[in-house]
Design a protein that fits this description.
Blueprint: H1 8-23, H2 26-42, H3 44-47, H4 50-72, H5 81-107, H6 120-123, H7 133-143, H8 147-158, H9 166-196, H10 200-229, H11 231-238, H12 241-270
Helix pairs in contact: 1-9, 1-12, 2-9, 4-7, 4-8, 4-9, 5-10, 8-9, 10-11, 10-12
């Protein structure tokens, strides 16, 4: 497993960007959407905070796994085949999520709101009816028990060049959680606000975000395939992880901001 940058500032920026990007995962978006919809009826006081609570539970698992994996690294090494296998798994699910959300945008009638499609959200759909803050955080923790999240936590533990340094690994997990909490929290507030304005504005904004998630998922999957098949692309990616991650986050944030501003403008005009 390749080491992360050792420069403290660059390392912190990279891990924070990875957390931001992870917060835009289709499974996060779809599950937070479901939690907010349920709590808007069952527990409206907490509905707007579902994104933050989900992220706290999710990030807590990342921090714990990073610390434990760091301690275990003193006597255990990650098999060489794990990195390639992890890339293939990520490409598969990104492609699946991208196609699912693209079809969701294309097949949803124009008069209805497009809901982001997730994989784990379908398997664990009943968990979206969590109506208490602690239960919402527990849902986030359960969603962290997946290959992509656990492998990310292991990278923080084993890719820093300091096996056994569990405080450093846990600290990286905390930075990752803060990035994820930023996007999950903003996304939760955005969905909560759109639900309060269930009109044409919300339907258009949801369609924009659904299409953006689909296109970026497919683009990142294609980049993963290129990295796996081409040594030249792989070599280029070695020094460009931060740029690529920030680019993906930048596009999503720009679309997110435009959709938010559009919904806000229509909301103020209607008021």
């Amino acid at each position: 497993m390749q080491a992360l940058p050792q420069d403290t500032l660059l390392l912190t920026a990279l891990v924070f960007a990875l957390g931001l990007k992870h917060g835009f995962d289709a499974d996060h978006l779809s599950t937070i959407d479901g939690l907010i919809r349920y709590n808007s009826r069952a527990n409206p006081r907490w509905a707007r905070y579902c994104g933050v609570l989900f992220s706290l539970g999710h990030g807590g698992v990342v921090i714990a796994v990073a610390a434990v994996a760091s301690l275990a690294a003193r006597s255990w090494a990650v098999p060489g085949w794990m990195e390639g296998f992890g890339t293939l798994v990520s490409v598969f699910f990104l492609g699946l999520l991208g196609l699912a959300n693209l079809f969701a945008v294309l097949l949803t009638p124009s008069g209805q709101e497009v809901r982001v499609v997730g994989v784990k959200g379908r398997w664990l759909g009943g968990l979206q009816r969590a109506g208490q803050p602690a239960l919402v955080a527990l849902v986030g923790a359960l969603f962290a028990l997946s290959f992509d999240t656990l492998s990310q936590a292991t990278v923080f533990a084993l890719g820093t060049g300091s096996p056994g340094d569990w405080p450093r690994a846990a600290g990286l997990g905390l930075v990752f959680m803060l990035g994820m909490l930023t996007t999950d929290g903003i996304n939760g507030l955005w969905i909560w606000r759109l639900l309060r304005r269930a009109d044409r504005t919300g339907r258009i904004a949801s369609r924009i975000m659904g299409l953006t998630v689909a296109v970026l998922s497919l683009a990142v999957a294609a980049l993963g395939v290129a990295k796996y098949l081409s040594p030249q692309v792989g070599a280029w990616m070695e020094g460009s992880e931060l740029s690529v991650g920030l680019g993906v986050v930048g596009v999503l944030c720009a679309v997110f901001a435009v959709a938010w501003a559009f919904a806000r403008a229509r909301f103020c005009k209607a008021a």
